[in-house]
Amino acid sequence: MADDQSAVPVPQGIIEVTAFMPDARNDPHPKLKALREECPVMRDDLAKAWFLTRYGDIRETVNDRTFVRHPLRAEDGSISRQLVDDEENPRRTSILFLDEPDHSRVRPPLARAFYTRIQKMKPQIEAIIDDTINAAPASGLFDLMAEIAVPIPVLVIARILGVDEHRLPEFRQWSEDVILGLNPVRTAEETARMESGSIALDGYFNELMAARRTTPGDDLITDMVQLQARGDAPLTDDEIVINLGALLVGGNLTTTDLIGNGVWLFLKHPDQLAALKADPGLASQAVEEVLRYEAPVSATSRILEHDRDVAGCPMKQRQVVFCSLAAANRDPETFAAPEAFDITQKRASHIAFGGGPHICIGAPLARIEARRVYLKLFERYPGLALPEQDFTWRALPFFRGLETLMVEA
Ligand code: HEM
């Protein structure tokens, strides 16, 4: 089923395609299409950033190891630069913004331990998902985001990390508080909550590391302190704490939106839901199609270390290059009938998890969770329906997800 996308004026700046603009917040795709067709390498002098929208350019850019990531290395006054203050130490960051040689030192041991943990805990992860879905209302109207999409990722990551059962309510609160950091227009009260949440979380992770050194558990915190003690993970305590926090912040809202966007898409496209029900073996491909069609993270960025050409245009050292993952994922040069949500087609790889050295470390976990939720949810609620409602998309720039999703069981 193709969505209608009549011609729209070509945007002149990045802000026009973010959730700050009501039309782009409701549906960014027509504007992204206009840019991809008319101005695929846009310079925004106000945001001091480039904005790429073609799949080929973006794939090449994210894979290119000669770019850097830390916002302090970006041009003064650029949107990336506004994320940090001058006092900040560029080495005191999670892998998200860490550059070489530190990124290659910190990420591999963390990734190895994390992937081993996810595989080991897959039955427990699936049990958390099943229990959460079974605990949702048996019938009537309910908000799928509040009942299912929000709690699942935080309960799963808590179990993987090794959060003690009796600390879960606090952990969920801190996690909500630190996620306020993703909102650049948060209030002073929200900033204060974000800061106190982040202090509490760091304190708790430090406490857990000390506890697991004396009494090992079956969790990622134990894995990391043991690797560190054996010399297999050359990370400081502070680096472990920062990066465990990154797993929490990086994984919650994104997976919540993969669940919410997927359920919304299936309920809007009953033919696709019928195809999934008829062949549950399509579930993995369905997850990839949701990621392609409504990517929960709509952009990532890179910074130039030297003057050079990018996407055929001369660019300068320290300039910021934003890559629209949402636009790339609907590029007709790469995807046949890109405006159709179709889980039955075997498509080229989407780019919703970015790429290259910084490719999302949580992709395997997000995939396990979404696959299980789609299958279990439509099995528990065979007649799940989407009542009339105003869909409110979150006002966070570069994220795509619904605030609420009322469904009728
Ligand atoms: C649907 C869910 C998710 C989406 C769409 C998503 C998307 C992304 C994207 C676009 C990036 C930047 C990649 C780049 O610049 O090339 C990223 C990085 C990252 N993600 Fe995810 N993510 C998801 C789930 C998760 C989960 C579940 C976790 C952890 C539990 C996680 C943790 C991270 C971390 C730590 C990074 C930084 C990696 C690095 O820079 O080396 N993400 N993610």
Automatic annotation (TrEMBL):
Top-rank taxon: Bacteria
Pfam families xref list: p450
Family matches, as InterPro entries: Cyt_P450, Cyt_P450_B, Cyt_P450_CS, Cyt_P450_sf
Alphabetized UniProt keyword annotations: Heme, Iron, Metal-binding, Monooxygenase, Oxidoreductase
Keyword Heme appears in the UniProt entry: yes
Any one GO molecular-function label of the UniProt entry: iron ion binding
Entry annotated with the keyword Glycosyltransferase: no
Family assignment from sequence similarity: Belongs to the cytochrome P450 family.
Function text: Cytochromes P450 are a group of heme-thiolate monooxygenases. They oxidize a variety of structurally unrelated compounds, including steroids, fatty acids, and xenobiotics.
PANTHER family per the UniProt record, alphabetical: CYTOCHROME P450 YJIB-RELATED (PTHR46696:SF1), P450, PUTATIVE (EUROFUNG)-RELATED (PTHR46696)
Name of the protein described by the UniProt record: Cytochrome P450 family protein
Species in which this protein is naturally found: Hyphomonas johnsonii MHS-2
